[in-house]
Amino acid sequence: ASAYLKCHYLAAFLAAMLNNQPMGFYHPATLVKDAQRHGLRVRPADVMQSDWDCTVDTGKSLRMGLRYIRGLRQEAGLAIEAARRSAPFVSIDDLVQRVPELRKDELRTLAKTGALNFINDIRRRDAMWDSERARRPAGPLLSAVQQIEQPSPLQQMTLKERLHADFTGTGLTVGRHPMAYYRPEMEKRGVRTAMELHALRDGQLVKIAGAVIVRQRPGTAHGFVFLSLEDETGVVNIIIEPKTFDRNKETFVRYPFLLIHGTLQNQQGAISVKAGKVEAIDVNAIPVPSHDFH
Q1: Which string of b and e fits 242-252 if b means at least 16 CB within 10 Å?
Q2: What is the CATH classification number for the domain harbouring 69?
Q3: 79 and 153 part of one domain
Q4: What secondary structure letter does DSSP report for 44?
Q5: 272: closest CA among 211, 215, 198?
Q6: Range of the domain at 67
Q7: Fewer CB within 10 Å, N side or C side of the chain?
């Protein structure tokens, strides 16, 4: 039944999954990336459009809910939703005045994650600047005085800074996969994508890199450890022998992005890589979530 829903009603299926977390095996970040690879457009959380829950915009589009803004209380999220129904927000000051439930730290996180960008078509650090000004206390004599708009002196976030802000602020990104930014460097090192492995022969030596989304060490597997590595094209299962794991335990367990040197196992289209050597790769310390040893 779930396979049918995923195939024919992907947006509604993903919305239901995201609105009922925690559940299942995979983190929301993995669910979002899988849906995007299957053609679904996932739009970011936006105070001008998002409800508390994730919603279906169209048959091919999903809107992330405000519930995914870390630290935002449901009370504040529902208050934003209710205030917007009466009239769109015209500025961050307007949002602050009409949603008194919103705390300063919550407003700051909304700005950092881009959820305020669409009020006046501004960028994240502009929104962060305006948010700090909007939250400055004003006494009764100054409450009616209109503040003079000042341009933000802050430099705009780089793509990688926005990616880091996405993961720290929401636990996921609806933008490009982190590995996409490092693909040119990976190609120079001979690293394959997950999709490319399907065209290679069984037993071929390969290099594969990605974010670790699952770590498993089943009690019935005689000490073998299994990882799932995700890049911008898909997911690859990594098989690690006990001696290989023990020799590189800290790297396997500690680092969120790994480069595996190993042997491809291609059994009738079922792809995995038997690890021989592992190294950590520095992806700006992006805190990609994973499901570890459960």
Answers
A1: eebbeebeeeb
A2: 1.10.150
A3: yes
A4: P
A5: 198
A6: 2-170
A7: N
